[in-house]
Structure formats: structure tokens, C-alpha cells
Amino acid sequence: MKRIVVLISGSGSNLQAIIDATESNQIPGQVVAVISNKADAYGLTRAKQHNIAHQVIDHKAFPDRESFDAKLQEVIDAFNPDVVVLAGFMRILTQQFVEHFTGKLINIHPSLLPKFKGLDTHQRALDAKESYHGASVHFVTPELDGGPVIVQGPVAILAEDNVDSLKAKVHKIEHQIYPYAVKLICEDKITMTAEGVHYQQQQLPETGLVHEV
Known about the structure:
The protein contains six helices and eleven strands. By secondary structure, the protein is an alpha/beta fold.
């Protein structure tokens, strides 16, 4: 059973999707710890409800980003994780931290990368009159939202869609593709190399696998 550590800052809906997938044996792994930089994050309550170790490391208690990340790294390492999942963790991580967990650290971004890196992805997709939007699970590298993509979940943009309706669609697909990506990693089917992402020894395209709904 692979060991999964999840980092959160908020409600933890993606955390819940991953917990549910481990408890139903869809993922051959176990969430061994949930760590938040905010004490009021509801995801901590989710962890408690499932008897998962949980801890708060308040970034405001540290003089700089480097010292916070060093403490965070120390706490994560103590759980000896196979996968470290960023699930709404609202911190930009230092290069040293990211490189320490290279090949283990994954994130989900609300766009079909490499389109719409950064913020306000739903509005930007609407403004660009895209036909499809969605979410991407990717390995984390020092470049923001620039790591190689593992899997994407596309959703159609309809004429009546607005930011709220599109956001709801993307959240729904996130809850499907994030557990799926964690499953593939825990099954040793996905690895990150210098060339990108390999799925069962075959290199994936820049957009990764496409998860059909």
C-alpha cells in the first residue's frame, strides 16, 4: 500500500475524493497524513472524521518562505510518503522543496494545460471563446503550473455557461481525475522522467492522458 500525504488550505473536496477512492480500494494506497497551513481548513475535519493524522503548520509563524518550506518538508518526510498531493494548498513552494519531492509531488490546475496557467482560468476560457475547458493533474516543477501533465479532464463550454457554471463543471471533473492520477501513481504505472511523463513505459504527449467522462 502506497503512502499518500495531502496538503490543503481549504475545504478539501479533492482530499475527500481521494480518501473515498482509497477506502473503496480503487487506489492501492492510504492517506497517512493531511497537513494544512490554515487551522480553520475544513479538510482537517475530513481527516479527523476518517481517523487520518492531521497537522497545522501556520506559514505566518515563520519569518520567510524558506523556513516554512523547510519545516513542511521535515514533517512530510516523517510520514515517508510515496505521493505528496497538493489539494487546494494555497502556497507557492520554493525550488528546494519542489526538487526534494521531484517525481512524487502532484497538483491539480483548473485548465487544460498548457492553456491558462495561473489564476482566473474559467473567465479566461470564456473570454477566449474556447469550446472546451477542464482540469489537469500534473507533476510539480519549479515553473508555476508548468510541470508535465499526467491526466486531463475536458468539459464542454456551452453557450449558456458563465464562470459559476463552468467552475462547477470543472470541480466535478477534478473529483474524478485526481483520484485517477493518484491511482496510476500508486500502481507504478506513471513516472516522471527528464522527457516528461511515462505511462507504462510509453511517453505521453504534452497534454497527458485524457480521462473520458
